Amino acid sequence: MVGVIxxxxxxxxxxxxxxxxxxxxxxxEYLNKVTKAVEEIKKAGIPLWASQDWHPADHVSFYTNxxxxxxxxxxxxxxxxxxxxxxxxxxxxxxxxxxxxxxxFQAVIRKGTDPRFDSYxxxxxxxxxxxxxxxxxxxxGIQGLVLFGIATDYCVxxxxxxxxxxxxxxTVVHSLCRGVDPESSDKALREIRLKGGKVFEGLEEAxxxx
Length: 210
Known about the structure:
Rossmann fold; globular; alpha/beta; six-stranded parallel sheet; 8 strands; two-stranded antiparallel sheet
């Protein structure tokens, strides 16, 4: 059985909402495409989940929590490389809200809630703490995952790779993803393919061949 995960379609990641960490190509046209796709998936009776970045204000990934550091600087924390981002998707703020109707989804998986660890993946954070997603997918008998959302080279990438590590057949819908950087986005898609995942341009093909 196939399920769909829509990754981090939130105000702070979009140009439409003038987000603090807006990804290129995330204007109204993109949101309309994603909304139409989600409605079609729901109408077809395919189970849907969404992930939601949900950071406390003192989150480790915010450059403002590291005096003297600059935005997008990379630092080493407890042996891990950490990109320092602008504050984004802070719990309870407008920028953290999903831009899709939450009632369309089986559940909304909140990630990045621990101030000590970043969490690009919707399966686990950088400290190894699991979200509820894997358990929910197993309960539904899901074997194949179709992913799309924001951003190709970060949260989509890590979610897809973690899904493959957990034994799912993973497919990414390229046309419904947007990335921070073209080069790193292409690299992410190559990495997903190398690990056994699939990448298709359109939703219909992805759902048919997932």
